[in-house]
Amino acid sequence: MKLLAIKKYWHFWTMLARNELQTSFVNRYTNLLFLVGKLIRFGMGVLFLILIKNNTRMLGGYTSDQAIVFFLTYQFVDTIVQAIYRGAYNFGHQVRTGEFDLTLSQPINSLFRALLGKPDFNDVAFIIPTTVISVWLMANLNIEITFINFLIYLILLINSFIIATSLHILALSVGILTTEVDNLMWIYRDISRMGQFPVNIYGQPLKLALFFLIPIGFMYTVPAQVLLGTKPEYLLAIAFIISASFFTFSIVIWRWSLKRYSSVGS
Amino acid sequence: MNKYLRTVQLSWQEGLVYRTNLIMWRVRQILGSLMSLSLWTVLFSKNSQLFGYSQDQMITYVFIVALLQSVILATALHGISGYIYRGQLARELLKPIKLFTYFASLDLADKLKNLFFVLVESVFLYLIFQPVLSLPNPIFGLIFLIWVVAGTIINFLITLLFGAIGFWSPDAWGPKFLFFMIVDFTAGKLFPLDILPKIVQQLIYLTPFPYLSYAQTQLFLGKMSNAEILTGSLGLIFWIFILYMLTTRIWRRGTKNYEAIGN
Amino acid sequence: MSKNPIISVRNLSKHYQIYQKPPGLMGSLKSLWHREYKTVKAVENISFTIQPGEVVGFIGQNGAGKTTTLKVLSGLLYPTAGEVSVLGFNPWDRKNEFQKQFALVMGQKNQLWWDLPAMETFLLNQAIYEIPDKQFKKTLDHLTELLSVKEFVNVQVRKLSLGQRMKCELIAALLHNPKVLFLDEPTIGLDVVMQKTLREFIKDYNKEFGATIILTSHYMGDVKELCQRAIVIDRGQIVFDGGLQQIIDKFAQNKILSFSFSRQVKKSELSKFGRIKELNQDGSAFTATLLVPRDQAGKVAGAILSQLPVQDLNIEEPPIEAIIRDLFNQQNKSHE
């Protein structure tokens, strides 16, 4: 029974992806400009860190070489999250126009549709060259990466993805009730961007908030710390506890919001 | 005159009603400033001079850029191209006040709102970071204000240019996104342009981008020689002139098309 | 011979809390920390049953509760009180088996992807409703035939005309052969030709597929054309439930008598017979229209025929629009 459901949703998602791919091709000039803009943003970040590297050795307790790893980790995770969850940026529009009501009346999970309904191929096109550049950069930096650290890093990246999922679900839950989800998504992105540098450069209580309120510290900083073989800010176990609790909490809030929407209407 | 004041007042009130949007926008701005200020504070803890800046100068830079972004770059006119494309411009064309003046008053209202808030935020950030702000002497201050007005005009004209896209295409977001990325690069809160190699700076000075915030900050921080102030002023005048010609021409062509189709 | 109803509603009530914002700048500021709520009774204790295959129209003014009722029936809203059963399910459980058997079409809301051919959306819906390939193809062919859009399903939706788009939206909604169809203001925003096309289609669809159809509208034209039965809702309550002819019999106050005369007739000559609605006494034709209470229509007609030079006479029911309008005016008055 569960397997059938997984098959159905996978099949449905691949169809959505195919449609999105076709749509992005129809709008290819706009998408090209977006891609170029994103590449400029990426290049700007790398350039900045290289310039820092050439002028100063230390950034918040890390060498400037190490700082680049934090930046690249942020880029990688943030881009994948955007690619898959681009639907969340469209959700406000769906609620406002009543399209969400339509999807509620259809035999497909509304959260699935809201979150995963618009895979973004522009980000896919972006992530390929930038990952290649990232790997090349890291190979040429003055850092030491062991195999075991790399494995734990990958596990932590999956953990980061779960935290990101939870934050998106929370934003959508607010979006059902207030239609302010667009602004929330942008604030999430701005907060996320603070994670392009090691989060310990921020003073308290901001730093605490960035670990336990909007856990970008666990999403970006801790994995990078592990990869570099430096001491992680908090025990790794806490990273997993955070993702599990945030995820559970987000599902509870989503269900509650949906119930409230169904009793209050639009 | 009353018409314009009323437009400004209504827009202000509307801003207050959509309070969540404005607050969210300001929160985003604060986050950007926090990120930048934290970063530079940490960097300067190990260095007294970086890229030709002292810590005070760099912190001042971030504060000034935050201010300038609210005055020069903030705009309420993002929706123009969609407005035009959906045929809603026809109503405005019939209004007695001239179109550009109408847009300008909307823009001004938005900038005033943003200015108010950025001043409040700056006080708040000042209390956290306790910088020693380096201020210019009065003459430079005056030129600075003139340059800020000039930069505002340039951005206004560029915004109208993007708006004009709506005469021909529904989607202006591609070019706008690219524009914002470049602006972020040249007038960003994260770093001043002059940390980049000289050749890059010279290339960028061939475009109007540095006149949107960067040139003004350099003037404020006293990093411009008198010769540079002169060339800078000429550059501002040049770009205002070119953009004005371009914008009015394109709008004229666009509105003619528009009326012909019978929108 | 009452079969099991496909839709059954008992004592349904739906109340909302509405937040009231005071006007002006002071109001906006005040509402930053204190809000006042008011309870709105959108639907209050309504009951009805619908048999399979019926086409029922919900008529009412804006805000009367028609859309709310429809949303409860389709599972989008929980009721405040009462019992609802559609196809044997509680709609708001939103069970998959339930959702696969009905369709909701709301005004001009779109589900077609703008930059792609309608076919892509159809295939997507096939996946959502898990329609087997054979059945999908058969239904698609039948529907595209019925609406004559076969050549357009592979054209980008943005290139279609409004009418073609509307037809494709309908097809997208009906691919899964729903047993129950909820239509919320289906003809809103359409021109006369498209309204006609849509109404014909709904009639045909009901005949060919036997689907139960509920539509809400404030256009009487929709109801007149399509519905054998009308439920009139006002202020959240059912004011009338029955056949259209019964509405006329029960609520129509007057009949319309239309005359054309061979010579000019003065106003004073006519006014004693009834209320004059229209009088054209210039040019080549001399016509008049009177409103006469129903029970006197025959007598008055006879009187006019005998006293005035009548060339032509027509006796009609007033349009349902007028009847309903009068009904609501009465209701409004009695609530003042």
Structural description of this entry:
The complex is a heterotrimer of chains A (266), B (263) and C (336). Chain A is built from 12 helices and 2 strands, in the order ααββαααααααααα. Chain A is mainly α. Chain A has one domain (2-264). In chain A, α2 packs antiparallel against α3, α3 packs antiparallel against α7 (121-139) and α8 runs antiparallel to α11. A two-stranded antiparallel sheet of chain B has the order 1-2. The longest helix of chain B is centred in the C-terminal third of the chain and has 36 residues, at 226-261. Chain C folds into 2 domains: 7-249, Rossmann fold, CATH 3.40.50; 253-316, ACT domain (Alpha-Beta Plaits, 2-Layer Sandwich), CATH 3.30.70.260. Chain C has helices at residues 24-30, 66-73, 96-99, 118-129, 133-147, 162-174, 192-209, 220-226, 244-251, 267-271, 297-307, 320-335; strands spanning 7-20, 36-50, 55-59, 81-86, 102-106, 180-184, 212-217, 229-234, 237-243, 254-261, 275-280, 286-293, 310-316. A 6-stranded mixed beta sheet of chain C has the order 5-6-7-3-8-9, sandwiched between helices. A 4-stranded antiparallel beta sheet of chain C has the order 11-12-10-13. Chain C has a 3-stranded antiparallel beta sheet with strand order 2-1-4. The relative contact order of chain C is 0.12. Classes of the chains: A mainly alpha (266), B mainly alpha (263), C alpha/beta (336). Chains in contact: A-B, A-C, B-C. The interface between A and B is large, with 38 and 35 residues.
Strand-helix topology:
The complex is a heterotrimer of chains A (266), B (263) and C (336).
Chain A: H1 2-26, H2 28-55, E1 58-59, E2 62-63, H3 64-85, H4 91-97, H5 99-104, H6 110-116, H7 121-139, H8 147-178, H9 181-193, H10 206-212, H11 216-227, H12 236-264
Antiparallel strand pairs in A: 1-2
Helix pairs in contact in A: 2-3, 2-7, 3-7, 3-11, 8-9, 8-11, 8-12
Chain B: H1 2-17, H2 19-44, E1 49-50, E2 53-54, H3 55-73, H4 80-85, H5 89-93, H6 99-129, H7 138-164, H8 173-186, H9 198-204, H10 214-220, H11 226-261
Antiparallel strand pairs in B: 1-2
Helix pairs in contact in B: 1-2, 1-6, 2-3, 2-6, 3-6, 3-7, 3-10, 7-10, 7-11
Chain C: E1 7-20, H1 24-30, E2 36-50, E3 55-59, H2 66-73, E4 81-86, H3 96-99, E5 102-106, H4 118-129, H5 133-147, H6 162-174, E6 180-184, H7 192-209, E7 212-217, H8 220-226, E8 229-234, E9 237-243, H9 244-251, E10 254-261, H10 267-271, E11 275-280, E12 286-293, H11 297-307, E13 310-316, H12 320-335
